[in-house]
Amino acid sequence: MDTGARVDGRTARAARTRTAIVDAHLALISEGDLRPTGERIAERAGVSLRTLWTSFKDMETLFEASGERVLARQDAAYRPISPALPLTRRVDAFCRQRARLLQMLAPCARAAQMREPFSAQLRRNRAKHVDRLRAEIEELFAPELEMAGAGRDEVLHALIAATMSPAWSMLRDTLGLGVAEARAVMTRTVTALLVTAMAAGLG
After folding, report:
1. Cβ 81 vs Cβ 176: under 8 Å
2. Separation between Cα atoms, residue 40 and residue 103, nearest integer Å
3. Distance between CA 89 and CA 36 in Å, rounded?
4. Segments making up each domain of the chain, as ranges
5. Helix (H) or strand (E) holding 192
6. Do 162 and 189 contact (CB within 8 A), yes or no?
7. What's the CATH fold of domain 1-56?
8. Which of 1, 12, 82, 90 falls between 20 and 30 A from 185, CA-CA?
9. How many Cα atoms sit within 13 Å of 61 on the Cβ side?
10. What's the rounded Cα separation, in Å, for the pair 20 and 48?
11. What are 90-149's pLDDT values in tens digits?
């Protein structure tokens, strides 16, 4: 075997090991272990603790890799919504998709919320989700936001806040609503914000 093949083999094994560690991290979180230790992650991945910290120098780098995996899962589950649809259909499709994605990502969101005050990487991960949601809302509801005039950014920020994981957690975990009930509240909130924006423009 030549040197290049040996290097390629080591690179492939290292990638498989990193994948197994990220898989283990996210699996533990999905099962309710919201603050898995390095020991538990390594055991679940079938690697030594030393291998874990060779693959990832600290928890922050593991949070980064796991965050990228979560975004990839979200991208795979996302379905584009046509901005040409009537407003009521856009709002319904948007809220149905947000509810589905938020429900899918709920364990990771809960885990991140616990550690975000102490993790710059988790805050960066959340910022990526916010940026993606902002871009989606700006494209999907561009006419209504434009009608808000000087209040455009205020309406945009309200829409983001109403459709992110903290709001979903309030509806599902704190108020105890079912998925359909929580989605109905989200739909009502988004509709009210956009109708108010339109009214401001007409006024």
Report:
1. no
2. 25
3. 41
4. 1-56, 59-202
5. helix 179-202
6. yes
7. Arc Repressor Mutant, subunit A (1.10.10)
8. 82
9. 9
10. 12
11. 999 999 999 999 999 999 999 999 999 999 999 999 999 999 999 999 999 999 999 999
pTM over 0.85: yes
Residue 102: what residue type? L
Contact indicator for 98, 186 with CB cutoff of 8 Å: yes
Residue whose entry in the numeric block shows the structure tokens 């805050």: 123
**CA quadruple 128, 105, 119, 25: dihedral, nearest 10:** -120
* Burial bucket for residue 128 (CB in 10 Å: 0-12, 13-18, 19+): middle
The amino acid sitting at 108 is: C
**What is the sign of the dihedral through the CA atoms of 131, 134, 138 and 140?**
positive
CA distance 139 to 131: 12
Using CA atoms, how far apart are residues 60 and 40, in angstroms rounded to an integer?
17
The rounded distance, in Å, linking the Cα atoms of 87 and 89 is: 5
Residue with tokens 């589950």: 77
Backbone angles phi, psi at 69, to 5 degrees: -65, -40
Contact 38, 21 (CB under 8 A): no
